[in-house]
Fold:
Amino acid sequence: MLCLDNINTTFFIFSDVVPHLLYYSHLPAMLLSFLFGFFIYFKSNRSLLGKILFFLSISFSLWVLLNLIIWTNSSSSLIIFLWSLTGFLYAFICVIALYFAYVYIDKRDIDFKKKIIFALLLLPTIILIPTNFNLERFDLSNCEAMEGTYFTNYYYGLGFIVFVWIIALTIARYRHVEYENRKQILLLTVGLGFFLVSFFISGYLASYFGNFELEQYGLFGMIFFMGVLGYMIVRFEAFHIKILGTQALVVTLFILIAAQFAFIQNSTNRVLNLIALVLITGFGYILIRSVKREVAQREA
Structure:
């Protein structure tokens, strides 16, 4: 069954009947998260920390993709199926973020007891997926699923608890680490905390007021978090990865320019943006090679 406002969609995610900010908020956040997680996973030699960040990136990217499909399609059966999974994914993102904070700060895996606690926190969101506690009904006139209050409050409440938990963890560990590591812990807490708070607040307000356009603004928190991690890699060689500031700058510029294709509608502007992308790729490659050569000469 189709919603009353039938939408023409291409490749499940492209439509002209969407909020103006939708693609600019969703595509850059999804692609940056996925690519960054993929990069860390392999460059860290598949370390535990790299695996956790990869799962965090994958789950966030999947949530964004499902949300994007929900926005751009009018099939009620497709929308309600995908919508039923978003609550679990939200809870999983929060728990895996807490797991990541523990491993990064403590430099070791958590004990089995904490893993059981984390699993128990996720269990209700799994069990209640196919029930009316998750989604009560579907509103064809607005093309929206009606969310269950208790289920929604649970996973948003879990997001708030995880945020407070990470703050408490930071305070508890801060005094017992070396000065250089304190900076990393603070940066991690700021980046991860900002992502969780923006993701939590925008989602909660969207559900509370029934204005799901508000969810878009929470996705920029992930871009900020990835930026913080990128700075930590350059400044502190986080994840035991060596990368030049020049490389990080060129990659950032490439992503920002490429992201503009998501909302450019004029064909002339698309061509100009493509030219800019090709130029930044070429000059960036030359710049990185010259900087690497200079660094190698200094270290020789």
Observations:
- The chain has two domains: 22-243, 244-300.
- The domain at 22-243 is CATH 1.20.1070.10 (Rhopdopsin 7-helix transmembrane proteins).
- The first strand starts at residue 135 and ends at 139.
- The chain has a mean pLDDT of 85.
